[in-house]
Amino acid sequence: MKYGFFDDANREYVITDPKTPFPWINYLGNHDFFSLVSNTAGGYSFYKDAKFRRLNRYRYNNVPMDNGGRYFYINDGENIWSPGWKPVKTPLDHYECRHGLSYTTIKGQKADIEAEVTFFVPLNAWAEVQKMKLTNKGKTEKTFKLFSYNEWCLWNAEDDQNNLQRNLSTGEVEIDGATLYHKTEYKERRNHYAFYHLNQEIDGYDTDRESFIGLYNEFSNPRAVLDGKPSNSEAHGWSPIASHYKEITLAPGESTDLIFILGYIENEEEEKWESKGVINKTKAKALIDQYNTVEKVDAALKELADYWTELLSVITLNHADDKLNRMVNIWNQYQCMVTFNMSRSASFFEVGIGRGMGFRDSNQDLIGFVHQVPERARERIIDIASTQFPDGGCYHQYQPLTKRGNDAIGGGFNDDPMWLILGTVSYIKESGDFSILDEMVPFDNDPSLAQTLFDHLTISFNHVINNLGPNGLPLIGRADWNDCLNLNCFSKDPNESFQTTENNTEGSKAESVMIAGLFVVYGTDYVALCQELGKTEEAERAQNCVDAMKEAVKQFGWDGEWFLRAYDFYGNKVGSDENEEGKIFIESQGWCSMAEIGLEEGMVEKALDSVKERLDTPYGIVLNNPAFTEYKIEYGEISTYPAGYKENAGIFCHNNPWIMIGETKLGRGNQAWEYFKQICPAYLEDIHDLHKVEPYVYCQMIAGKDAYKPGEGKNSWLSGTAAWNFYTVVQHILGVSPEYKGLKVDPCIPNEWDTYSINRKFRGGEYAITISNPDKVSKGVAKLIVNGEVIEGNIIPDLGEGNHKVEVIMGTTSLVDSASAEAVVAE
Ligand code: GLC
Ligand code: GLC
Fold it and tell me: Where does ligand 1 bind, in terms of residues with CB under 6 Å?
């Protein structure tokens, strides 16, 4: 427990040393209003969109690291300190940060004064509430001065950083007692303002940054705090802030509670003003009134806790391994909610101004989220599909605020369309709601072009077969899942991005074996969906395409010991033993194994053995090997990264589960589990200093074996890794997955496991599933007993509401006499 420990009973990670190897952060908010908060209270808040509606400033990649946040300062005459240690960094007598589910509590103590602050965004509120408790732990009376600090961002976070010639003149505030309003640009086109409120009378304030901090001071030593008094400044341009000042006296043992509210308000055009130049504060006052007492805040905190209890009760695991329990029951699901909300927009690695919601990313995020709130998944699927083009291609990204495709990135990533089938099918299997397929969904956000969602899926499927290359394999386009394998770019200009530069597909022979595998997996899902809908002809047509793809992979996608990765622009092999560097890639091994292409011929087994031999490391499976050591213009960005990082032979955690699932296709539960544990954060606590990033969430990338420091993690939180690992461990290792007709049970586990149980809420029913493994096998269901009755096969039927008891006995030979089982089912 060098920096902290898991407190599973409270669903918290407790940090005991503020100097973690990197800021260890948390997310607040689950809908519309969000905040990022580090273990020293750094971070920022935004409404829906971290680019267009950012409330407060944050300084990425700054010195010191993690610079900017909701800061509090205490000056007791002798010590000046902050409860979260930063920004003052006065050594504390005690420090603790508890990151919980959508809240964070930071407690600091200095010279007998204890300050505990809980940060959270109440359910359905457009506000961050900060509940502070100050306690005199000493034996004498204490008098001290408290300052809050919040620096406003002028809404558009990108503009805020680069258009200073304008911005330093536009800032406007309004001061109304203990409520400090930020109204920059409200008088022209904006319909929104923000405020920072304290629920008590204050003894002063500042709203101008320079007045509070001083031009030559820093966050660590603001002038007002050093002087022990604010200047009641009113900002006009420059950098508006909101800082409250309060003098506090506490008797020995006495406590006082303060509630700060950082809120966001939108007003209709005709209701913007109270009087000329004075903003209409009605909604702000109503919002304040909802959370301005300890009782109200505690009730909102309880509501939030109950919300999470309910969400997490959909899937609960009871296993002998605590680390696995805490990942499955708490943290991995929590991260899946965060990735669903954020896609790849805002983290401590994604600055919130570049990438919004990703087409492929958000579809994949759904597989870890859909069981939590299926209705939100439904809405998301429609939003995503609305950014598809009529030919099946898609905008690669869209902005969460506008839900519009992002022209700056455009489209042309030929894997994108297939992920829509994954997202949609996952939703239907979870919810049983086929009606989503009949929804009319626009193309390119143009309602006049709307067709049903089912049509979108058909068009997605067809996009692959309409774009086949010379070997009958899918053309890669700009890139497939691997954004950095840019086979049609030939970029010589360091000023252009590989994702947006010219895409020279004219005459290109660049084909992707990964998309081929992806197409077989989700094409098969599409076939099954058609069958389910009674569209037999379409099912047959699609099946033929899938079969043809399998053949093409066997014929042109196999290298002898593993699957090829691609063909380049000229038709040369990529990911072949013939190549000097990049002989083998993970993605095609994963997808072709998941697709079971060449399973009978031994291809899957050989490919996965090659992965083990060439790509596996103690810290996870690297993406390719050998790493590229020079820039290959015909490969693009992948060869720009130093060896062992990111897509160039880094451990890209997102794709490790593809190999795990592949292993389960072979029944190799021990190997799947080993791969799972290698990258699962709860198992990495002992190597904190190396791993660096949060031990409670997955990161996108761990440095690979060719890197300077193998095992070093980066880019935590926003990665498809969260959803893929949750999906893999629950559905493919522990083996309980939703199907159209019910819940399928098909575990593939380490053979030494005895027993575990899963409680699964599913379409209104609740299934208590116990799996036992008396014969110590890795795979195979010998007997399935549902509510006391033996059932043939391995699907628990959808039994509707009520509690259902399920016993699963694993073994290699069926213990069910099929004649009698049929009789039982028929009864
Ligand atoms: C990033 C992107 C994702 C991409 C992956 C591999 O994680 O968000 O879309 O598939 O990198 O390049
Ligand atoms: C870079 C990253 C990749 C990411 C892409 C998004 O290429 O290496 O992981 O998906 O940017 O634009």
Answer: 344, 358, 360-361, 481-484, 647, 654, 700, 719
